[in-house]
Amino acid sequence: MAKLLYRLAHAARRRRGTVLGIWLLVLAVAGIGALGFAGQTTNQFSIPGTESQQALDHLKDKLPQAAGASGRIVFAAPQGSTLAESQQAIDGVMAQVGRTGQVSGAFSPFVTKAISQDGRIGLAQVQFSVSPPEVKEETKTAIKDAVRSVSDSGIEVAYSQEIAGEMVAIGVTEGIGVVIAAIVLVLTFGSLVAAGLPLLTALVGVGIGIGGLYALTSVIDMSSTAPVLALMLGLAVGIDYALFIVHRHRKQVLGGMEVNESIARAIGTAGSAVFFAGLTVIIALVGLTVVGIPFLSVMGLAAAATVAIAVLVALTLVPAILGFVGDRIVSEKARARAAAPGQQEAFGYRWGRAVSRRPITALVLIVLSLGAIAIPAFSLEMGLPDDSTAPEGSPQQRANALVTEAFGPGFSGPLVVVADLPSGANPEQALGALAGRLGSVPDVTRVVPAGVSADRTTAVLQLIPSSGPSTEATKELVSRLRDLTGEIKAQTGSTIGVTGQTALNIDVSQKLSDALPTYLIVIVGLSLILLAIMFRSILVPIKATAGFLLTVAASIGAVVAIFQWGWLGDVFGLTHGSPIISFLPILMTGILFGLAMDYEVFLVSGMREAYVRGDTPREAVVDGLGHSARVVTAAALIMTAVFLGFVFSHDTVIKSMGFALAFGVMVDAFVVRMTLVPALMTLFGKAAWWYPRPLDRITPNVDVEGETLARHIGDQERHEKVPQPV
């Protein structure tokens, strides 16, 4: 691998104009594709095969007009007034909404009788003829324009998510992380040229990745979170991978190596580590497809594609631009400092010696502290976003608050019951008997028949729970209704299925929760195999995986404490705690696995390089950490800064993702990789590099440390020095 990348770097440097032109052309094509073909993203989640999806599919067959998306418009009169004073205006507005494209029915609160006891708050229903992802932005805009006349008259108007249509957007605050990353790069390199190069190449890679994703939204159902996740990872790894290569190149040039040769060797050595580090991230993200959840698979593949582009940029565009930069990659001040005698020993060496002197103390302190942080993870509650978790003051949040105030929390997330009525029975009587039986189930507030199919064999009912959509009580109600299916059929003759957005969210959350152990097994297995191949060791992969599991546990614990329990809510702009987004634990596990292996590869490859060179095991630990600590520290700070930039997002989902990844990277880089790893490697001694001979014979030599490349270059130099016969 190292020799291949060495030759690739030489070719990219020699043909740097062509390489740069190709990447700029690809960037332009991606941008044009995004502008010309971008479709809509969605915040709706579903999984084929779940009970709620099966019931919804059945409803689409029998009552297609009732199977589309449904939204709510909430009207609230000022304190001391009632909606009756504006009835004519509200009825007129809802009639106009009913004539909007993609709307199959719009029902005023005076028609549905959904008006609070004091007459101040009313709930209108809008039934769409299409599923939630298919509702066009023009439709939502037309509805909001129609009701604007009522809001202008002093009536407060709020909408549910289906109408509000506020997708996750990339804003200015996300750029804060990039600014911090730039500052870290300048401090690391002391040169604007060297600092600007990783930022430039990362932005090229991210531009291509995000542009391509938005171009695909017209043909692929993609969650609104997927492009933001790809942006997070693309920026973070794009900057870090270029940083590792540029750092190696500068170090070699300062050591006296010729610039062009240094570019190729930096790609051959640090580039090999970048390749395998990127490969671990890609494998972790692609591995999300094994859990069989379509929207999660799309998110994983989208992020993996962006990381793959970042790796390609690092291995081809970075050497090309380094060729343009030439000697300017190192300033005269840097050369003078490197040549000055009496240089202070780097902090990494001092830290490595401190840890290796007391490895057991470091091990115990880390395990106890991370174990304590992980305790809240045992209280993890998962759910999907709904109007109750929307940002404070948003139309969705206001709609949820007004509905809860007027009618109770259950009205914010009604369940839909699809019933096959008994053959030969009177539909009205059968429907009445079923509604009565469902109404007697504990925690059911109201049951309202909502329609019967044209063939009079299938009915749909709206069931209002006593609790909100994200609560444990509603989850238990859905489970109870499904458990009662046989009993209800025996008593009423009707076969029921429970669906609706609330039930869909509950089923998706459960499927994700069930998939997490399987995914962990897959990821742990892959990490053991991949690291064994890279380092030809048994203990190194086991130690790396154990550290990764500690990182994940502590990260989930911190997320639960802040976003579910509400600790430090004021600091993070949270008004209340809520269940953790269902896909966050599994997504965080995959991403942190890949990033954790990044630092593992860079740190341990340095230790192995020193050990192979002849250092004792303890000296190899100190040397490896000393050589890598500065660049790994910079990389971790940059990645943390990029992720923290998303904590300032107004969207709770993005906020929690940004925090989880930022916290996980900080813990893994500074606590696990730079403290726990050297402590364990010191305790392992020579055993850290033991590898059974049978496995050694069948394991391919991937040469992460560049040993083969060094021998190859040495052989070439010796051959050139031998006098050739005349």
TrEMBL record:
The chain crosses the membrane at residues 167-187, 199-220, 226-246, 267-295, 301-325, 360-378, 516-535, 547-568, 580-607, 628-648, 660-684. This is Membrane protein YdfJ. The keyword Membrane applies. Belongs to the resistance-nodulation-cell division (RND) (TC 2.A.6) family. MmpL subfamily. It comes from Kibdelosporangium persicum. InterPro entries: MMPL_dom, Mycobact_MmpL, SSD. Its main location: membrane. The keyword Transmembrane helix applies. Residues 192-324 form the SSD domain.
